[in-house]
Amino acid sequence: MKRIAIVTGASGGIGQAFVRELQKETLDEIWVVGRNQQRLLSLQHEFGERITPVCKDLTKDDDLLSFSDLLKKQRPSVLWLINNAGTARMAPSIEFSFSEIGQTIDLNCKAPAALINLCIPFMEKGAKILNISSASSFQPVPYLNLYAATKAFARSYSRALHMELKPRGITVTAVCPGWVDTDMLSTEMNGQKIHFPGITTPQKVVKKALSDVKKGKDMSICTFYVKCQHWNVKLLPQKWTMKIWLHGIKKYL
Predict the structure, then answer these.
(1) DSSP assignment of 114-129, as one string?
(2) Is the dihedral of CA 100, 152, 34, 165 positive or negative?
(3) Are the beta carbons of 137 and 182 closer than 8 angstroms?
(4) Average pLDDT, the chain
(5) Are 139 and 128 contacting, i.e. CB atoms less than 8 angstroms apart?
């Protein structure tokens, strides 16, 4: 039985950092999942033959079902499932089209939940699931509220599922970074260069996440800056937190 890891959104940023770190684990294959076949093949070229490209659009039911068929055909032992694929955009909610709303929810919420249910039958004691959430899951975030709400789902879903799967020895961890230096971040908005307080690297987020999941934690918070955010939202009324956020971004609106 092949021992595998599955990483979605593997071709850049946090996903690629996970692929790099998983090279150190005892695995036969690392399945890298994404929509761009060429970028997935470049990962195989960079990291070697253990990388198995799986070209799927996780917002499409047919692709999720064909992924299920792939698991049933190969019947691997899934040691790691890392749900990293996601999408985000900072903008007034009224600007989001019906299609963009649906795709954001499908990719950030539906796909991770579906993949988890597909993979659990192929997991044994010691298997690990990581869902990439965000520090924005700690409180409502105006002008980033669709993304933040999907990440609140990811955090809540992960922590509850962690309790459900604990008797089976499967760990589920919500990874909640703040600003991470990836291509997902826009460098400017309305002509203003954006400042990202407390920004960190994908490598630091991933190393902290892998350390926390091995300790059996249901949530991973990287950097002291984000830990302070987490404490603040527990102490302050959410209306105050939102006003502080709005004050910080008003020059970009």
Answers:
(1) HHHHHHGGG--TT-EE
(2) negative
(3) no
(4) 95
(5) no
Q: What number of other Cβ atoms are within 10 A of residue 48's Cβ?
A: 10
DSSP 3-state assignment of 215?
A: coil
Number of domains in the chain: 1
- Band of residue 114 on the pLDDT scale cut at 50, 70, 90: very high
What is the extent of the structural domain holding 83?
3-252
pTM: 0.93
CA pseudo-torsion sign 122, 125, 130, 131? positive
Distance CA 75, CA 213 (A): 24
Average pLDDT over residues 191-201: 85
Q: In the structure, what pLDDT confidence band is assigned to residue 39 with cuts at 50, 70 and 90?
A: very high
Residue 167: which CATH number?
3.40.50.720
